């Protein structure tokens, strides 16, 4: 029982100011996205990639509306899982989509770990064998696991400090990169066939990954001062701040590297762009910022993801096995989360990890908007045209992305579809099982007696 008491200190009502919540949101958003996605987006859509960040921001702006409306009505530390439960109740759509969100968060963790490896190796002349990047990524996840076992206060302090350094460093990179370049010479003649509509939509879908961290703000609902107003404000300010930072960085990279160079260095394009503008010192500075950003992101992510799975376990929406492990449910979910992250980091490259993440996230996002539209419209006082627009934009981005991947890497789409089918079948069997019904019945009896 003691461990449970320790964990509950995480939910200090009124402990987060508006500025603190914004720092939390931007800290999570400016993770691997900007460091690794810039090159991948350029590969998909050519010189139009800075505009793909802007179109991603527009889609995320419409998406944020549903999250803001639900968090204003029901501020909660449960975040996405709780939102889905409000809309769909104790049924398959809740469990299925909450698990998609869980997996997309674990994928984001592996993405951060791989990006850490790619950038760190730039200090040693790159990684021609391709073996050191996953080794470094796996080491970072294990280090984050140990810190997470040591205590929660440490995580928040370290993540907050790293967030400040990271945002300051990226702003300096963007401003100096543009200032030292020959000018904002983005060569739109290089668009060629990579600039087709489906490629632009695919790059936009990747760009959404760089913004999706705003959903973590919803998890802080019960801790924010005046949550009914400030959760929504924090989401809007965080997205706006990231639009400015990403646009700056996109133009800085495009001004210092040719399109072919951006594509060639896609896993570490910011470090590559720093070389012509700022020399070797610029590369070291950029690598240091990337290492800080990804390490801080992993620390916060491992904690948030294990908390989400623990909450789903407590809501009796996912099966739980102790496997003989001591400690609380959150300690167990921490172990599951880390093991899953290690497997992805070791065996999947950056572009495949990003592809899985975006498919799972967009499917879950559509479910949130449909839930608002179908079940919560009056409760949360939402205007129906906004979630309708969000669903259409999500479907556009997802279909563009799927089309691009069908032509370039159908294997990763196969993995995504098979994983979703397994989650759906597994959850259907679990939700209908006798054992779960007994557990739910017992807990209802227990609550009734209290």
From TrEMBL:
Subcellular location: Cell membrane
Annotated source species: Alcanivorax nanhaiticus
Gene3D superfamilies: Amino acid/polyamine transporter I (1.20.1740.10)
Major location category of this protein: membrane
Regions that span the bilayer: 21-42, 48-68, 92-112, 132-151, 158-180, 200-219, 231-254, 283-310, 331-348, 354-373, 385-404, 410-431
GO molecular function terms attached to this record: transmembrane transporter activity
GO terms for cellular component: plasma membrane
Keywords: Cell membrane, Membrane, Transmembrane, Transmembrane helix
Pfam family, one: AA_permease_2
Source domain of life: Bacteria
Topology of the protein relative to the lipid bilayer: Multi-pass membrane protein
Name this protein carries in UniProt: Amino acid permease
